[in-house]
Amino acid sequence: MKTLVIVSHPYFARSAAIKALQQTAESLPDVTVRNLEALYGDDTAAFDVAAEQRAVEAAERIVFLFPIHWFNLTPMLKAYLNEVWSYGWAFGPNGTALKGKALQAVVTAGATEHTYSAEGLIESTIDEVLTPLKASALYVGMRYLPPLAFFSAMGADAKTLAGFEWQLKCALGEPALAD
Ligand SMILES: Cc1cc2nc3c(=O)[nH]c(=O)nc-3n(C[C@H](O)[C@H](O)[C@H](O)COP(=O)(O)O)c2cc1C
Questions:
Q1: CA distances from 23 to 49, 52, 121, 169 (A)
Q2: What count of other Cβ atoms lies within 10 Å of the Cβ of residue 138?
Q3: Contact by Cβ (8 Å): 25, 81
Q4: 35, 50, 61, 124: least CB-packed within 10 angstroms?
Q5: Which structural domain range is residue 79 located in?
Q6: Which residues line ligand 1 (CB under 6 A)?
Q7: Contact 169, 28 (CB under 8 A)
Q8: Alpha carbon of 1 to those of 6, 28, 87, 113, 137: distances in Å?
């Protein structure tokens, strides 16, 4: 399945987890990676909308790869939705470009898996935290795949990162034997 991975991290130079996962994604067949801050810095008005829309049109599955900061999307990912998922293209009259494609969030979070539970500090699961993304995907006619979440990801050691990378490879469909 042709997959487009949209990566966003406001502090990519300081990233360990997202950086490792981006490198993994880049190594996989049939996967195109676009890092929003690498392309546009943190300028929310700088998107090449036509290029971004072409990249989406060429893919069957869209993956958003980003760290959870204040239980939310990154600023550039939110701006990407505002700019790229536009009226007349993603929704509204003739706005069917995303219809039938799949959306999956792949996120890293500093807090523990227990924190992201009904009994945990935030009394919310990661699925609940990502509700706006789910609503957005369903609104434009996409299939919303269960998110892949990596908890306790702050300062993760090499072994933990390798585990994250393995799970991403499996999720993006690389045959295990190819490794
Ligand atoms: C500004 C900021 C806000 C953060 N907010 C959250 C949060 O709301 N929930 C959480 O679980 N982790 C939070 N974290 C931790 C990050 O999610 C974690 O460090 C990151 O996912 C690890 O990936 P990285 O190495 O690519 O940065 C926050 C980190 C920063 C810098």
A1: 24, 20, 32, 11
A2: 12
A3: no
A4: 50
A5: 3-178
A6: 9, 15-18, 67-71, 108-111, 153-154
A7: yes
A8: 16, 11, 27, 30, 18
Contacts of 131 (CB under 8 A, 6+ apart): none
Q: What is the CATH number of the domain that holds 13?
A: 3.40.50.360
Name the amino acid, one letter, at 31: V
Q: How many domains does the chain have?
A: 1
CA of 151 to the centre of ligand 1 (A): 10
pLDDT tens digits for 125-176? 999 999 999 999 999 999 999 999 999 999 999 999 999 999 999 999 855 4
pLDDT, one tens digit per residue, over 73-100 is 999 999 999 999 999 999 999 999 999 9
